[in-house]
């Protein structure tokens, strides 16, 4: 009997792909006879390409805000040639909807977050699930969509990605053994933990004989944060910019522990099975990301305006930001507890 070919689409960002993995794993485990294909943007593909339970990852080239027909048309032709039986779009954006229709699958599942089904969704999907409340963890929305196919949310869920082992030796040369990696940048300034707090955390670690290395993203704002840290703490060790995601994933895998705010590298590390400590303050982070982590893997700020009325702003409008309220001493205590627990396990 021919296995159904299912195409899952998540045309969003790096962290979104990691957060999708519990739903993808449940889909494969509860429908074991399917061939599970996943379509993501090309820069996202390394996160999923080495998972053994995914048949194929389709890496679609993209430039945000632009359409490249020279690349897109051959890609869509290849999709259609695959002969998919079903398609599910987890992203819910226009590009995902279009690709759902373009892939040629006769059964196409998607979602609406606007209270009504738009014309594009009517054209592109054969079945649409309305999300009346999107102020819930993203994983809950994924499983509400999958419920249409009879796939249930497991009692426990976990992030899961895998890295390309061919970069292992290169990663070991970049990061010393038994090192804690602190990633200081996030996607929004209001989610960043203050530089002064990172400096204090480093000082506490030094006093305790704990090795730390600091990293940031590759864009100008995130590299500036690393420069700001070096300016106030010249003695800190920092990672060079790593453009290759496969290499960066192997560096994370080699880490003893990863400390970060609500950002892709935190989710990457958790998906790789590395011990993590997440620093969370903003309301959207608390709603979307925190439910994926255990109590001892996170530290939360006091509630502030970022939680609701100013959730759409990039900067916290409080006199003292919610992130500033998380003290370095509290983070260091959590960090020590994680290290102690990890030591007892081995």
Task: Report on the architecture of this protein.
- With 346 residues, the chain is of the alpha/beta class.
- 37% of the residues lie in helices and 15% in strands.
- It has twelve helices and eleven strands.
- It has helices spanning 14-30, 69-82, 94-102, 119-124, 138-146, 168-174, 195-207, 220-232, 245-254, 264-271, 283-288, 328-344, and strands at 5-9, 35-41, 56-60, 86-89, 107-112, 127-130, 180-183, 212-215, 257-261, 276-280, 298-300.
- A six-stranded parallel beta sheet has the order 3-2-1-4-5-6, sandwiched between helices.
- Helix 11 (283-288) links the parallel strand 10 (276-280) and strand 11.
- The radius of gyration is 21 Å and the shape is globular.
- The mean pLDDT is 90.
Set down the secondary structure blueprint.
Layout (H helix, E strand, L loop, with lengths): L4 E5 L4 H17 L4 E7 L14 E5 L8 H14 L3 E4 L4 H9 L4 E6 L6 H6 L2 E4 L7 H9 L21 H7 L5 E4 L11 H13 L4 E4 L4 H13 L12 H10 L2 E5 L2 H8 L4 E5 L2 H6 L9 E3 L27 H17 L2
Helix pairs in contact: 1-5, 1-10, 6-9, 7-8, 7-12
Q: Structurally, how many domains make up the residues?
A: 2
Which stretches are low in confidence, meaning pLDDT under 50 for 5 or more residues running? none
Morphology: globular
- What is the CATH top level name of the largest domain? Alpha Beta
Lateral arrangement of strands in the main beta sheet: 3-2-1-4-5-6
Rg, nearest Å = 21 Å
Helix content: 25-40%
Major sheet: 6 strands, parallel
Run of helices and strands: EHEEHEHEHEHHEHEHHEHEHEH
Strand segment tally:
11
CATH third-level topology of the largest domain:
Rossmann fold
Tally of DSSP helical segments? 12
What is the terminal-to-terminal distance?
46 Å
Strand composition percent: 15-25%
């Amino acid at each position: 009997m021919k296995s159904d070919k299912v195409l899952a689409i998540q045309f969003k960002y790096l962290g979104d792909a990691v957060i999708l993995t519990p739903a993808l794993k449940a889909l494969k485990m509860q429908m074991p006879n399917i061939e599970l294909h996943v379509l993501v943007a090309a820069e996202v593909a390394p996160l999923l390409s080495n998972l053994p339970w995914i048949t194929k990852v389709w890496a679609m080239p993209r430039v945000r805000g632009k359409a490249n027909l020279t690349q897109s048309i051959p890609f869509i032709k290849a999709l259609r040639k695959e002969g998919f039986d079903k398609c599910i779009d987890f992203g819910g954006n226009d590009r995902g909807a279009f690709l759902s229709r373009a892939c040629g699958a006769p059964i196409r599942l998607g979602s609406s977050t606007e209270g009504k089904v738009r014309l594009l969704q009517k054209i592109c999907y054969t079945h649409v699930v309305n999300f009346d409340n999107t102020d819930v963890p993203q994983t809950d929305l994924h499983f509400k969509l999958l419920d249409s196919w009879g796939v249930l949310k497991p009692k426990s869920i976990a992030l899961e990605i895998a890295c390309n082992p061919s970069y292992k030796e290169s990663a070991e040369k970049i990061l010393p053994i038994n090192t804690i990696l602190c990633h200081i940048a996030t996607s929004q300034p209001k989610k960043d933990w203050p530089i002064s707090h990172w400096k204090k955390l480093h000082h506490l670690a030094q006093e305790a004989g704990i090795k730390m290395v600091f990293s940031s993203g590759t864009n100008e704002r995130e590299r500036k944060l690393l420069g700001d840290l070096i300016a106030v703490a010249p003695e800190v060790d920092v990672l060079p910019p790593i453009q290759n995601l496969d290499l960066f994933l192997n560096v994370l895998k080699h880490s003893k522990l990863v400390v970060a705010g609500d950002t892709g590298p935190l989710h990457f590390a958790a998906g790789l099975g590395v011990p993590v400590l997440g620093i969370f303050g903003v309301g959207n982070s608390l709603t979307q990301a925190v439910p994926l982590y255990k109590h001892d893997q996170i530290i939360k700020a006091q509630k502030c305006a970022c939680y609701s009325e100013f959730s759409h702003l990039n900067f916290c409008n409080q006199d003292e930001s919610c992130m500033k309220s998380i003290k370095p001493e509290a983070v260091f205590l959590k960090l020590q507890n994680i290290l102690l627990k990890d030591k007892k396990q081995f």
